[in-house]
């Protein structure tokens, strides 16, 4: 019988904002780890890509080896340390995955089964071959846009982050086997359970009983791997959920509190300020009005979401605001104003950019001829496609493919 994996203890209370922070949204970070990081528990989700060296990452008490090509998706419920090997330091590229903005611009919410797959799947993937080439190309593309903070560049970088997320989601779904009981320590399983059921009336006794354990054992295990007791960990999960929900347009504070699992607005305010150092309203205002470099206002207007979803799902059809208005039962003037206020762009330009983003993905990941790609994404002819592509990227599609795929045809 295989022996159960034991949790590895962290040393001290975890730090926050090591890789994340308001000044790091949509920016590429490069880090060199030559020893070991302190325990880290971010308030954001981050992607980490190992570009050199070797070592290990311990996540929620479980260790995973790292080498060039390791790709990691860390969530706010992960407490982790990264250790370099003895021979050479770990070189890493890091991006913060801004959930509110990304879900706003990728136009859909994941299915419940997808969420289960992401939660259950290991957060570390080892890449090689074509998969490694693909992720390296995407990080390179992100870096190329990193010096710009205009809405167009932000949209491109969000699209790259969306591709990172989709890559992990597809991998997780492939690996997800609900009937397979992968043996993990109690702390690992409890953290995932709490993170998935945060809105329910959870107690340490009920969660411990779910895993056939005692509340005292569960508390000890959680402190061992995260530095938090059960109630502290649950509150932190709820605060992180609330901090995301606060940025969605049309959500009242009472709804945010209830959605995040708090029993009252008073408890929500008190606990939020304890963990975030500011009230919910102050937190929202800081993110929306932090001076230069801020790329977003309140997000997720339901009407705008419908417009974007229509644009995304029908990108290969003729661009026609009248048809969009007819299908969505939204006046043309409302569509026009919403798109311009949010993106400083016209509806037609947004639809064309959506086509070009799809074309770019096909150029980088397939060997389809240019004419087939043009038709695939909704252009009448390759000449029109090439002209539009060149206007945005200042090079022809064939030149773009050659430059970003190392001459591969």
UniProtKB/TrEMBL annotation:
Example of a GO MF term: DNA-binding transcription factor activity
Keyword list, A-Z: DNA-binding, Transcription, Transcription regulation
HTH araC/xylS-type domain residues: 188-286, 305-403
Top-level lineage group: Bacteria
InterPro entries from the UniProt entry: Homeodomain-like_sf, HTH_AraC, HTH_AraC-typ_CS, RmlC-like_jellyroll, RmlC_Cupin_sf, Tscrpt_reg_AraC-type_HTH
Keyword Iron-sulfur attributed: no
Protein name: Transcriptional regulator, AraC family
Originating species: [Clostridium] hylemonae DSM 15053
């Amino acid at each position: 019988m295989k022996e159960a994996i034991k949790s590895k203890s962290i040393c001290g209370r975890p730090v926050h904002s090591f890789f994340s922070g308001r000044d790091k949204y949509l920016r590429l970070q490069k880090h060199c780890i030559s020893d070991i990081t302190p325990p880290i528990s971010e308030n954001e989700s981050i992607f980490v890509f190992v570009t050199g060296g070797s070592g290990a990452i311990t996540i929620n008490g479980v260790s995973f080896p790292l080498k060039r090509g390791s790709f990691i998706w860390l969530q706010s419920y992960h407490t982790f340390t990264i250790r370099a090997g003895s021979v050479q330091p770990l070189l890493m590229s890091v991006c913060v995955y801004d959930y509110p903005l990304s879900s706003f611009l990728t136009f859909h919410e994941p299915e419940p089964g997808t969420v289960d797959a992401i939660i259950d799947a290991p957060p570390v993937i080892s890449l090689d071959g074509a998969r490694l080439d693909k992720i390296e190309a995407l990080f390179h593309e992100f870096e190329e846009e990193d010096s710009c903070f205009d809405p167009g560049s932000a949209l491109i970088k969000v699209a790259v982050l969306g591709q990172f997320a989709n890559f992990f989601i597809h991998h997780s779904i492939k690996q997800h086997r609900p009937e397979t009981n992968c043996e993990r320590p109690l702390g690992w399983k409890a953290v995932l359970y709490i993170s998935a059921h945060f809105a329910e009336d959870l107690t340490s006794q009920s969660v411990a009983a779910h895993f056939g354990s005692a509340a005292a054992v569960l508390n000890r295990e959680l402190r061992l791997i995260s530095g938090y007791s059960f109630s502290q960990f649950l509150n932190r999960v709820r605060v992180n959920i609330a901090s995301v929900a606060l940025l969605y347009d049309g959500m009242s504070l009472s709804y945010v509190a209830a959605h995040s699992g708090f029993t009252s607005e008073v408890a929500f305010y008190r606990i939020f300020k304890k963990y975030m150092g500011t009230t919910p309203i102050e937190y929202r205002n800081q993110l929306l009005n932090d001076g230069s470099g801020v790329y977003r206002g309140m997000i997720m207007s339901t009407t705008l979401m419908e417009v974007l979803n229509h644009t995304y799902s029908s990108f290969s059809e003729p661009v026609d605001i009248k048809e969009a208005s007819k299908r969505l039962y939204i006046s043309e003037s409302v569509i026009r104003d919403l798109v311009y206020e949010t993106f400083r762009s016209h509806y037609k330009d947004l639809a064309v950019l959506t086509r070009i983003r799809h074309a770019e993905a096909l150029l980088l990941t397939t060997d389809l001829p240019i004419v087939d790609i043009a038709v695939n994404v909704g252009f009448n002819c390759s000449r029109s496609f090439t002209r539009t592509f060149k206007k945005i990227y200042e090079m022809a599609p064939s030149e773009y493919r050659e430059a970003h795929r190392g001459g591969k045809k």
